[in-house]
Structures are given as C-alpha cells and as structure tokens.
Amino acid sequence: MIDDDVDDHEIFEMAMEQVDPSISCEFVTDGIAALQKLTTDKTYKPDYIFLDLNMPRMSGRQVLQELKKYDDLKNIPVVVCSTSSEMVFVNEAKELGAAAYIVKPASLRELVKNLKEFFKL
For residue 35, is it within any domain? Predict the structure, then answer.
C-alpha cells in the first residue's frame, strides 16, 4: 500500500487480516519511495498495489502514470483507494490504468466488505 497516512496503513492491515490472514502487506508512505523500491529491487514484485490519490511529493495519479512506464510493473493491478467518491476521480483513475477504485470507508467492517468484494471472496 502506498499511502501517506500511517493510520490508514494500520486500518488496511487489520482489514486484510480479516479478509485473508495469509496475505502479507507492505507499506510505503509516498510515491517516490514506492517507485524507488519497485524499480531498484528487481526481486520485489507485489501481487497488487493499493494506492492513495492524495499524497505529498508525488500524487497517486503521478505514481500510476509512472508505474505504467515500466514493462515489469505495468501489469501489476493497481487499486486506487481514496476518500473521494466523485466520478471524475474514479474515471480518471481507470483511464490511467487502475484495475479498481475503492472509496475509503468510515468503518473497518465496510473496508473488509469492499476488499472481499474486490478479491471475490
């Protein structure tokens, strides 16, 4: 997960534990650090990338655009996670290549439900 909010990391990790305890999560607090890790460590390839749109230094939109430039990264499904449910942002994320768009819910229970729906569990 690429998100500048450490509280969101904790909530996401708790939700993923309820969705499937065998899934391990790694967290990065900004897009620049994420891209550095993904492009320099050739052995590290996540199955999914969960990406916040609104971050300092490099927005989620920019991260998504950069990911699509790398042959070894462009096919990793990117799930945008944002507090905004506005269709303009949803459509933009999908146009940039996001596999899905999840609105950050107000409760852990709802996040678990959304993640289960995404993973079809």
Answer: yes
